[in-house]
Amino acid sequence: MKIAINTGGGDAPGLNAVIRAVVLSATKLGWEVCGIRRGYQGLFEEDGVVALTRDSVRGITHLGGTILGTTNRGNPLSWPVEREDGTVELQDRSEEVVEEFRRREIDALIAIGGDGSLQIASALSEKGLPVVGVPKTIDNDLAATQVTFGFHTAVATATEAIGRLHSTAEAHSRVMVVELMGRTAGWIALYAGVAATADIILIPEIPYHLDALCAKINERYERGPGFAIVVAGEGALEVGGSPTFQESPQTGESARLGRARLGGIAEKLARQIEERTGHETRSLVLGHLQRGGEPIAYDRLLALRFGSAAVELVRDGRLGCMVALRPPEVLAVPLKEAVAKLKLVPTDGDLVRTARNIGVSFGDE
Ligand code: F6P
Questions:
Q1: Nearest residue to 277 via CA among 356, 193, 338, 214
Q2: How far is ligand 1, taken at its centre, from the CA of residue 10, in Å?
Q3: pLDDT tens digits, residue range 56-110?
Q4: Which range is least confidently modeled, 132-141, 149-158, 254-263, 311-320?
Q5: Which ligand 1 atom is the nearest neighbour of the CA of 138?
Q6: Nearest-angstrom CA–CA distance, 244 and 262
Q7: Ligand 1 within 6 A of 181 CB?
C-alpha cells in the first residue's frame, strides 16, 4: 500500500500532529507514505512529492504550520493560469490530478483541509480518487464534526490577547475593538469573547444595531468601569447591512480567485463608536496570530486521533469519507455529507444564553 497526505487551505495548529499520526500508523501497517507539497501543487512540480518516514515526522507534534506547506490558491477544479496578456483564467485540472495519482501508484489520499479543501476532496473522490478527509479549520465551521483541531488553540490565543487589552483599555478609559477571524461563523469571537469577559460580542449570526452597541458602551462609562472591550468576528454585520471586506468581492484577487477576504470591521466600528459616544476608541486586528504557534494539548490530541482514524478508514476500505469527532468517538461521515453544510453559532444556544445572562451584549437589544 502507498498513501499520500496533503494539507490545503489556511493552516491551523495541529496539522503536523495529524501528519505524524498518519505516517506512524501507516508505517506500522507496513505501508509507504508520501507527502504532497502545497495542497495539490506538488503533484505538478519537480520534488513536489516527498517520502515521509518515521524520521521525517519525529518531533513535529507540537509545531504550528505544516511541514508540507499549504495554499488556498491550489484548487484543481479551478486552477488559476495566467494568460499572455496578464489576465488569469481558471481551468479544471482535476482529471490530471487523478491521472497523476495513478501514475505515481498512490492507492489513497488523506486530505487534511477545511470546507474548501474538503469540497475539492469530495469532487476528486467522485472522479474516482480514493480519498479520506480530515477536517481542519480554526473557524470550527464544519457541521459534520463537533469540533475541528486548531479552533481551541485560536480561542486560547485570542482570549489571552483580549485579556491583555483590558489593562490598557482601563488605564486610558478607552473602548478597544478587537477583530477576530472565523469568516461567516462567530465561534472564535463568541468563545474568546466570553472567556476573556468582553462587554460586547458581535458575531455574524446575530446582526447588531449601532445604537444598541453604543448605548451599552455609554452605560459602562456612566456606571463606573469607564472603559469597554468589544470583540467582533470578522464577518459581523449591522442589521440590514452586509459584512466588511478588505477589498470588494468584485475586484482584485477576490474576483480573480472567487474568494472574498473579510476584514475591516474593527476599524470601521472604532470610528463609528468614537463619533457617536465621544469615548476614545482604538481597534486591533488579531489576524494570523490566531493561526500561528503551537497547538494546545487538546488540539494535539484531536489531531493525533484524526490522523490515526484516517489510516484505519483507509485500511478498512472506507474511502470517500471524512473523520469526525462525535464524542466520545471519532467516526466516519461521507465526504459529500460532510461538506454539505456549514456550522454556525446557534443564536439560542447555551453559550449565547450564558453570555447574555452574565451581562454581555450582542448589540441586538
Ligand atoms: O479559514 C481560516 C481563516 O483564517 C479565516 O478565519 C480567515 O477569514 C481566512 O482564513 C484568512 O485567509 P488568508 O490567510 O488567506 O488571509
A1: 214
A2: 6
A3: 999 999 999 999 999 988 789 988 888 888 888 889 999 999 999 999 999 999 9
A4: 254-263
A5: 2
A6: 6
A7: yes
Please indicate whether residue 114, judged by its CB atom, sits closer than 6 Å to ligand 1.
yes
Local confidence band at 260 (pLDDT 50, 70, 90 cut-offs): confident
What are 232's strand-pairing partners?
A: 179, 202
Please list, in sequence order, all residues whose beta carbon lies within 8 angstroms of the beta carbon of residue 194, skipping any fewer than 6 positions away.
201, 351, 354, 355, 360
Cell of 296: 494546545
Greatest pairwise CA separation for the chain in angstroms = 71
Question: What phi and psi, each to the nearest 5 degrees, are found at residue 329?
Answer: -110, 160
Q: Please say if 115 is a catalytic residue.
A: no
CB neighbour class for 351 (10 Å; exposed up to 12, middle 13-18, buried from 19): middle
Distance CA 241, CA 212 (A): 15
Taking the C-alpha atoms of residue 316 and residue 114, their distance in angstroms, rounded to an integer, is: 24
Residue-level pLDDT at 89: 86
pTM given for the model: 0.95
Q: Among the options 55, 85, 92, 139, which is catalytic?
A: 139
Report yes or no: 7 and 150 within 8 Å, Cβ to Cβ: no
State the residue for C-alpha cell 468517538: 329
The three cell numbers locating residue 348: 439560542
